[in-house]
Amino acid sequence: MNTKVIRISQDSTKLTREEEAGLRQAAGILKRGGLVAFPTETVYGLGGDALNPESARKIYAAKGRPSDNPLIIHISRFEDIRNIVKTLPETAVKAAEAFWPGPLTMILDKSAIVPPETTGGLDTVAVRFPSHPVARQLIAYSGGYIAAPSANLSGKPSPTSARYVQEDMAGRIEMIVDGGDVGIGLESTILDLTEEAPRILRPGYITREMLENVLGEVTVDAATIEPDNGQTPKAPGMKYRHYAPAGRLVIVEGQPARVVPYINACAAADRKSGEKTGVIGTAEVLEQYRADVVKCIGSRKDEEEIARNLFSILREFDDEKVTSIYSESFPAQGLGQAIMNRLLKAAGHRVVRLQE
Ligand code: AMP
Ligand code: MG
Questions:
Q1: Crossing angle, helix 133-141 and helix 17-31, to 10 degrees?
Q2: What dihedral do alpha carbons 94, 97, 100, 103 form, nearest 10°?
Q3: 56-74 pLDDT, tens per residue?
Q4: For ligand 1, is residue 67 a contact (CB within 6 Å)?
Q5: Under DSSP, is residue 249 helix (H, G, I), strand (E, B) or coil?
Q6: In what order do the strands lie in the sheet containing 293-298?
Q7: Which ligand is nearest to the CA of 71?
Q8: pTM for this structure?
């Protein structure tokens, strides 16, 4: 399959005639059951018609994703949610008022028109109303319901630019809509509203604190941070290996004054045994690292920058064939909860904790 790439300028609120025609073509592909990757404010999505079981099958095949791992349905108008859920609880309306359009996915009981293929056989459905103008336009043109997981091969870091979508999906899907780099860089917060109390199944840009301000108490699924705690995570996707770079990643936790020399010593030893070494460091101490490839994930003063850079840095280590990577650790509060959730998964929960 030849994958066509179309570009939409950064200011996607003012589409040129050519861009408009390109998006209409993309919508046509979706309506016919084909797959199109497109930008959202979180990461690039791999879209198919959410109400067409055949499209869901194609998404699983293109990603190499297990078919029990459900897809998120993207809508472009709040009222469209009513067709795909059985009931709309007051909490969902409140959360939507506060955070939609935006990086929040809600789990609700599904209506009959949503095929089991899209929900991985579950009776619940994940719904998101993204804020990215290109995503919204494409969803509206294609009939209102796009099922879209992240547009990476299963297990790889989610793509934050069209270049990485191309790397994984060229030849597997019909079109890639290139809308430049994404703004947030981590996937949406997943909030389960099917039980008594709201529960975060996957942390994201919308933090627990932000949700609690609107909804009252919100719990966090234990599977978001802890490795095998014996419980089956409610979001099936959370149990799979994820975001992993090709190299071995280790997180080192502790005071910077101890972390830097520890990482340098490990990198030096690994290098002696023939590894190509890499470091994920923060701006404040970056110059002190000694390794083959040292990457700046951002400043400790700017968590949003760290979130935005994480996945692309993991991909860059693959591009540069780094085999042994060490990363600083981050406080797991606020946005840090999402950052550490992704970093821990990427590292397969390999963490070294240095004494104070
Ligand atoms: P991705 O789109 O690649 O970020 O993956 C979607 C995530 O949403 C996966 O972790 C899924 O397991 C989760 N998800 C989708 N639908 C549901 C659902 N009905 N219940 C729980 N988790 C869901
Ligand atoms: Mg994903």
A1: 50
A2: -40
A3: 999 999 999 888 889 999 9
A4: no
A5: strand
A6: 293-298, 277-282, 324-328, 248-253, 351-353
A7: 1
A8: 0.94
